[in-house]
Amino acid sequence: MGTRLDSIDIAIIRALQKDARASFAMIAKTCNVSIDTISKRFKKIENTGVARGTTVLLNPKSFGCDCVGSFGIRADFSHIEEVLQFLKKIPEVAFCAKTMGRHSVFALAIVKNVGVLNEVKEVIKGHPMVREITTSIWVNEILLCPENFDLPVIDGGAQIG
Amino acid sequence: MDKIDLFIIEALTKNARTSFRQIAAALNVSPDTIIDRYNGLQEKGVVRGSTIVLNPKEIGYNAMAVFMIDLSPNNENSKKPFDSTLIVETLIKMRNIIVASKTVGDHDLMAIGVIKDFNHLAEVRNEIAAVEGVKDMEVSFWTEITELSPKYFVI
């Protein structure tokens, strides 16, 4: 089950979701605690695995990638893992997971253009265990909102860990 | 983008809180240079922002799901097509939906959400189904990886 977070932890997470470089002094001020507390809590958030770290959000277009597409793949049931490993080796595939429901595998590719997306599709289709693949091209207004996570607030002195 | 820019991007991708002084020392330039370059990368839109990468499993989310949504071709009341932009915006405002986009291909819209359990999956599905204009939907979900993309690209 989840790790317990209190209101200070959540204030830190919410602030860093918006700007990972936010100063601990500012967060400390809004929480009315010392900078030291914030820095200790942040270490705890990382050490307990609630956060994997911090990162910058990059614009793929600046790196020549204009097209995002997703693939819904149905694979031979006993070879799903094999297909997944195959997908992981394709450099354009940014994300892939074994799924339940409509498809066996769901993959997301970030590529230069639609032509390259088609090439990736054909490579996947060429795998002997892939039975069916449906492609969707994501239109350029992808909205991302990682803040939509509900954070389980457990107040009253409960601490992480 | 030159070597300095790429070095900054790489350092901050691994840890967005890396101090500019540290990056400057590694490159043998002044911290002001790094600050200028970082601001430049933001102005040019190469860097869209920075964020903390959460592990959803640690906060009670055990799965992720992709909702592949088909829209009704026509709004029976207004006799006009539904505004897909408006529907995408409605989706992304929903709790637990972290990505939403219009798509060309098999479906009209796609949304990715974080899921606590089966009941919760049904709840999120029903919430999407209740949006006006949503005609049909297919759902796939996964439990093994709950990180969206290690690259964390934003468009």
Would you write up a description of this structure?
The complex is a heterodimer of chains A (161) and B (155). With 161 residues, chain A is of the alpha+beta class. Chain A has two domains: 7-56, Arc Repressor Mutant, subunit A, CATH 1.10.10; 60-138, Lrp/AsnC effector binding domain/regulation of amino acid metabolism (RAM) domain (Alpha-Beta Plaits, 2-Layer Sandwich), CATH 3.30.70. Chain A is 34% helix and 27% strand. Chain A is built from five helices and seven strands; from the N terminus they run αααββαβββαββ. In chain A, strands 3-5-2-6 form a four-stranded antiparallel sheet, covered by helices on one side. Chain A is elongated. The termini of chain A are close together. Chain B is α+β, with helices and mostly antiparallel strands and 155 residues long. Chain B has helices at 3-14, 20-27, 31-43, 84-93, 118-129, and strands at 47-54, 63-71, 97-105, 109-115, 134-142. In chain B, strands 3-4-2-5 form a four-stranded antiparallel sheet. In chain B, a hairpin with a 3-residue loop joins β3 (97-105) and β4. In chain B, α2 crosses α3. Chain B starts with a helix and ends in a 13-residue tail after the last strand. The model of chain B is unreliable at 149-155 (pLDDT under 50). The interface between A and B is large, with 61 and 68 residues. β7 (143-144) of chain A pairs antiparallel with β3 (97-105) of chain B, so a sheet runs across the interface.
